[in-house]
Amino acid sequence: MLRSTLLAASRSRLARRLVEGAPLTRSVVDRFIPGATLDDALAVTGALAADGRYVTLDHLGEDTTDIHQATATVDAYLRLLRRLDEAGLTGRAEVSVKLSAVGQFLPDIGEKVALDNARRICEAAATVGTTVTLDMEDHTTTDSTLGILRELRADFPWVGAVLQAYLRRTEGDCRDLAGPGSRVRLCKGAYQEPASVAFAQKSEVDLSYVRCLKVLMAGQGYPMVASHDPRMIAIAAKLAHQAGRAADSYEFQMLYGIRDAEQRRIADEGNRMRVYLPYGDEWYGYFMRRLAERPANVAFFLRSLVTR
Ligand code: FAD
């Protein structure tokens, strides 16, 4: 109930005005989004890399219906990639892109604009020697996003996809995307979805996650295990071992600000551990999804409002 209210609020303009206008302590948002500027993001990336972790950077923004805004987002990614290269961080850091931020929702021309814009980002990533992963948004975008992924992979076979275990279709998508070199980030899924397309119970989502992990670990691609759930992490490690995978043939991923000690433990044990690091001013949707994932975050947020 709380989860669906927060997820509905994440797409409400009124709720956005209320939350953004609230006397919200920056420290609450900072827990998940450590900086508004590119310099902030690069400083955190450098620190995580020095600590033995990998990073994927997300320039915050989504649901763009303005072509100039979509172009501005592409420019922000091109600046980010240039700066990662100058800082010598491209061996440790890649970028994550939401297609809705680069034009996917523009009426009539959205898919073409998003493909062209994503292509520009991939070209820049190739130039500096790093990779791009396409985030996955709600289920109405899945076919379009996978279609754009296919087109991009013809020229840039290393482009990563995100698949969401809560969708009933995802085990099949995992089979389709488990081929040689295919980078797939498997997460549980963060949006509000109807029962016709998504599992509603946590236990069903977890079982689906494990089925998908089995397909990906037994496949020939590069699985990216994006979860903070200790059970999913343990099962992934066991499946990787059973499949005879080397430590550099898959990786674990978590969001910045969540289970930091566990991130370190996983990295210290010789595994690849990548941190998803968002930055920028457009933090509202991302922040609300993080609140929706864990009721304790809401309590923390409310406490910060009253104890200011
Ligand atoms: P859960 O069962 O939700 O959580 C397990 C445990 O992790 C919890 O008990 C708690 O201890 C901790 N935890 C989880 N979430 C939080 C939180 N917000 N705050 C504090 N503790 C928490 N979703 C998409 O729909 N599309 C994407 O493109 C996408 N990209 C992602 C990329 C990465 C690298 C990661 C890690 C997640 C991504 N997600 C994405 C979000 C994902 O779908 C889940 O909503 C989120 O990861 C919570 O699921 P979980 O697997 O951690 O398991």
UniProtKB/TrEMBL annotation:
It catalyses: L-proline + a quinone = (S)-1-pyrroline-5-carboxylate + a quinol + H(+). Keywords: FAD, Flavoprotein, Nucleotide-binding, Oxidoreductase, Proline metabolism. SUPFAM superfamilies: FAD-linked oxidoreductase (SSF51730). Gene3D superfamilies: 3.20.20.220. It comes from the Bacteria. Binds 1 FAD per subunit. One of its GO terms (molecular function) is proline dehydrogenase activity. The keyword Chaperone does not apply. FAD binds at residues 136, 164, 188-190, 202, 227-228. Substrate binds at residues 98, 289-290. Pathway: Amino-acid degradation; L-proline degradation into L-glutamate; L-glutamate from L-proline: step 1/2. The keyword Zinc does not apply. InterPro entries: FAD-linked_oxidoreductase-like, PRODH_bac_arc, Proline_DH_dom, Proline_oxidase. Its cofactor is FAD. GO terms for biological process: L-proline catabolic process to L-glutamate. It is an enzyme of class 1 (oxidoreductase). Residues 47-300 form the Proline dehydrogenase domain. It holds the Pfam family Pro_dh. Its EC number is 1.5.5.2. This is proline dehydrogenase.
